[in-house]
């Protein structure tokens, strides 16, 4: 069956290999819900399933059950989901993972790739709306973003991880014959090279965008032979619980041990993260989450290796533009997108104190700031658009932070836009907020010099355009940053920005406006995170993301020379 | 000139790519001094040069000079070399490295590979005997081993690192065009992908085998755009000082900043290692040395990444043999080779208590131990053979350890062979010792359960063959181990050994006897270190050894569509 799966999915896999090599646009999946086969039916079934799951135990048979946990609250209803998930004894999960590993590690590369391609296809065909609904009611994403960003795009990132893993593994041949003279003797050795998985991988998924990072991490570990223990954020368990359940089913169908993938759930009151990272059997940690805990993980995981994505200040530098309104519209849209609860959302806008150059002359900084505020404000004033763009606020802590930053912003700058709830047209109890926008000066690094998670933006006055670039890239180097956006009509300035951001390690987008979200990161094409600044140490997905998840062990012995060869020489 | 170098060395580089892919036997270099062009002349010049260098300052122009250091003592004469090397201010070296990096990072892959291939060729053609002589009189290797192991084989490991680095870098295209519809709009982006070096690499070289690990590490870092600060062991500076001087010359000839490679020297009294590892500009650490400091480096280098090779217990399991004398001869030779001062030297022999099966019947354990002792003893009794095989003892501490272990061995087992100096035929004052061989029981892990650096071996009685394998691989997992050797005529036992050593992460050699040293690791073919046990975390040389030395930063912007294309569509 598993060989069948490899052959079945091989055309898609080979097409994905092309895409990774060429880095052009491609996906085997319908990018929009409207293009999905019987989307309405699938969505209706997902909603029925979700309604039926609420208030009920989640059926996940895995070993070591010691109780139940569940504290999810829908950002759209602000009511508990009431789903009770199995709480597992950690040591039992590790032991089960260790026992499951040898047969999976011994399987061929084709077998493992086939099983994991089947998983992704199964998630797409049978569980996409179920997962999208789960993401919506845990992370607070809009239905469209949950479908695209947490659904098909995340599946694409998963395939991409498989392509990279396969490439790294194929670089090692299965065997070789080696022959050399030593003195008068000829030594002929047959060598076999075995790819050995590093060991149990712990995958931390984050609260606001669980699948997009976790799926490629899980697939990178599994493709290279490692079992995975998934540690969802207690606020967003359901998407990962569904993933784990489907993966376990597919593994069993393929004849492998379901315990290659299990879920280790904890609670906000009693977090398990440190225990999982420092468990004596942990060999790989994939971490998406806060910079603070991420730093701890990076420092304390040894001997496990760590692949992290944390957070930083994503920066925008406005030097000169052709169409200021188009640029501000694009910025406003992107700063509103999912209430800036994405690791790629822009937060800090650095502008020359004198203003931004346009074909109609210099537009003063205050005016640019006001027009940006107006563009953002107009989104918050249209409930349907706000619902589509801003969606909901994942955590009540973000509302606290908004209050706190509004006060700090008033003290260290000027509040251009104060946050307020907007009325969600479909969910009247939704936890929502329009963005906070503060105008300040580059000296106020205490205000803007870290990720302020949520719909919070800063317009930062700098001495001039060169100073804006210097300040922005210095902030990225010091505080981290994943994405960066530069607007300039001056090719010399653009070249300087490309150099400065390359050194700072942020993925740069230049002069983009229009309907594509500025922070959209395309699988197979865009590298996500550079590892060059504090915002994370790993990239989705390059060879470095996969090559150290397995090791190479060899065995060599004197060759038994073929009798027919010996005959021909006599 | 640099483009010329790439073209000039391209056939050799492409041949090396084939060898890495096929992992067969290949080298562009003369494996034996006798095959080297005008070897006698080259050797004479090297010896004259060495004699002239003794007692004199070493000419190495590098920035930040704050004094001179030099404490090398030749193991062959036990006299100080009297060479004074420049001692540098560390911060100055880091600053100089940072300044040197951008132009090197901006060079094409071809340019960097060309420069580094030229370096290796230059080392071979102009400095091979100079380096071999330096290795001999610092590490204590025999002339032949210094030529082969520390010379041509190390050069081959260097080329191998370049091949892997090139493969990892080529996996990322320089640019792509990406096109996708968003709503009714078509977004066309041109993307460029830039490979950005991680930053300053610190390369620790060890005392007994400095070039073999350091050269591939340095070349892996340099190929991917990083500057390197070399930290030689204070006892073995000369080989690395020559390397650094030649590299700086070649870099300057190619138009680059010499400070891409500098040397940070310290003394035994005032070691610099921790400061170098934790310097705020350190981004990569390559470490070869003790398990104890290696563990510290692995734990404390963050945010720098670490590639380590430390030490462990290399194990031998004797189950059954066809020709016991041939096997014991091969083991004796390999245990004597360079007085077992190699990270690959076997140390622990695990035997069934009942003895070893042979075609002539079971040979009791005591007899096997005695015959092994006799085979080792016979080497020590022939001064010419002893000089060729045992060579000299690098450090006086090893003689202390031999005394201490002899006492411990007598207490926890039986001393089969007591160490004693042998008379070196060429250097009457050479620091030498024949091996210590102790017979003991598997319960005495306090005796044998760690690397005992130097010519020290243990014959360990186990319950039976299965128990011997279990104990040996458990020891590798717990204490580390790079190589392993199994002798068995039972294919079931061999298969079990392959599985067990694959899990333990030691590179296995089966049923080998004859003239090839059992622990010979061939460039392009043998992987060295697995990273699966405490003996090191990196392998020479796989993609994981190179892929994270650089990062990928991208820049994307709306495409300017070609006018001719626009014309053809109107």
From TrEMBL, chains A, B:
<dbReference type="InterPro" id="IPR015590">
    <property type="entry name" value="Aldehyde_DH_dom"/>
</dbReference>
<feature type="domain" description="Aldehyde dehydrogenase">
    <location>
        <begin position="72"/>
        <end position="496"/>
    </location>
</feature>
<dbReference type="InterPro" id="IPR016162">
    <property type="entry name" value="Ald_DH_N"/>
</dbReference>
<keyword id="KW-0520">NAD</keyword>
<dbReference type="GO" id="GO:0010133">
    <property type="term" value="P:L-proline catabolic process to L-glutamate"/>
</dbReference>
<protein>
    <submittedName>
        <fullName>Phenylacetic acid degradation protein paaN</fullName>
    </submittedName>
</protein>
<dbReference type="InterPro" id="IPR016163">
    <property type="entry name" value="Ald_DH_C"/>
</dbReference>
<dbReference type="InterPro" id="IPR011975">
    <property type="entry name" value="PaaN_2"/>
</dbReference>
<dbReference type="InterPro" id="IPR050485">
    <property type="entry name" value="Proline_metab_enzyme"/>
</dbReference>
<dbReference type="Pfam" id="PF00171">
    <property type="entry name" value="Aldedh"/>
</dbReference>
<dbReference type="GO" id="GO:0009898">
    <property type="term" value="C:cytoplasmic side of plasma membrane"/>
</dbReference>
<dbReference type="GO" id="GO:0003842">
    <property type="term" value="F:L-glutamate gamma-semialdehyde dehydrogenase activity"/>
</dbReference>
<dbReference type="InterPro" id="IPR016161">
    <property type="entry name" value="Ald_DH/histidinol_DH"/>
</dbReference>
<keyword id="KW-0560">Oxidoreductase</keyword>
């Amino acid at each position: 069956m598993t060989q069948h799966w490899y052959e079945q999915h091989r055309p898609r896999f080979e097409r994905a290999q092309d895409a990774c090599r060429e880095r052009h646009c491609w996906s085997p999946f319908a990018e929009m819900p409207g293009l999905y086969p019987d989307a309405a039916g699938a969505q209706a079934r997902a909603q029925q399933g979700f309604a039926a799951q609420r208030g009920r135990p989640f059926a996940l048979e895995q070993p070591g059950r010691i109780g139940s946990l569940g504290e999810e609250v829908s950002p759209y209803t602000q009511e508990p989901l009431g789903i009770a998930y199995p709480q597992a004894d950690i040591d039992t999960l590790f032991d089960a993972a260790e026992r499951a590993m040898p047969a999976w590690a011994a399987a061929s590369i084709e077998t493992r790739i086939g099983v994991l391609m089947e998983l992704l296809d199964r998630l797409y065909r049978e569980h996409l709306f179920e997962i999208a609904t789960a993401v919506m009611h845990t992370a607070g994403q809009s239905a469209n973003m949950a479908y695209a960003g947490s659904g098909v795009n995340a599946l694409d990132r998963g395939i991409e991880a498989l392509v990279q893993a396969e490439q790294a593994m194929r670089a090692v041949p299965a065997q070789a014959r080696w022959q050399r003279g030593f003195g008068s003797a000829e030594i002929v050795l047959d060598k076999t090279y075995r790819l050995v998985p590093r060991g149990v991988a712990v995958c931390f998924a984050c609260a606001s965008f669980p699948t997009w990072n976790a799926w490629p991490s899980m697939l990178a570990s599994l493709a290279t032979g490692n079992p995975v223990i998934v540690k969802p954020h207690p606020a967003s368990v359901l998407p990962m619980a569904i993933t784990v359940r489907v993966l376990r089913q597919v593994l069993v169908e393929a004849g492998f041990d379901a315990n290659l993938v299990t879920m280790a759930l904890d609670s906000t009151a009693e977090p398990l993260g440190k225990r999982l990272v420092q468990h004596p059997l942990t060999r790989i940690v994939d971490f998406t989450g806060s910079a603070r805990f991420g730093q701890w993980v990076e420092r304390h995981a040894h001997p496990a290796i760590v692949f992290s994505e944390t957070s930083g200040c994503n920066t925008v530098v406005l030097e000169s533009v052709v169409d200021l309104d188009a640029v501000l519209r694009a910025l406003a849209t992107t700063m509103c997108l999912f209430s800036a609860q994405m690791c790629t959302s822009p937060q800090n806008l650095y502008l020359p104190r004198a203003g931004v150059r346009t074909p109609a002359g210099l537009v003063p900084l205050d005016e640019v700031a006001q027009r940006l505020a107006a563009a953002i404000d107009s989104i918050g004033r249209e409930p349907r658009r706000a619902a589509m763009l801003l969606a909901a606020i994942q955590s009540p802590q973000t509302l606290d932070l908004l209050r706190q930053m509004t006060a700090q912003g008033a003290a260290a700058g000027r509040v251009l836009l104060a946050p307020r709830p907007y009325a969600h047209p479909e969910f009247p109890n939704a936890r929502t907020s329009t963005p906070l926008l503060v105008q300040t000066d580059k000296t106020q690094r205490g205000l803007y010099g870290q990720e302020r998670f949520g719909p919070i933006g800063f317009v930062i006055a700098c001495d001039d355009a060169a100073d804006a670039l210097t300040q922005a890239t210095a902030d990225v180097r010091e505080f981290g940053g994943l994405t960066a956006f530069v607007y300039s009509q001056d090719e010399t300035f653009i070249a300087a920005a490309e150099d400065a951001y390359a050194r700072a390690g942020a993925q740069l987008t230049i002069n983009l406006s229009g309907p594509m979200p500025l922070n959209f990161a395309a699988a197979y094409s865009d590298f996500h995170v550079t590892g060059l600044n504090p915002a994370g140490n790993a990239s989705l997905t390059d060879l470095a993301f996969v090559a150290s998840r397995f090791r190479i062990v060899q065995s060599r012995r004197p060759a038994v020379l073929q009798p027919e060869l010996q005959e021909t020489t006599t």
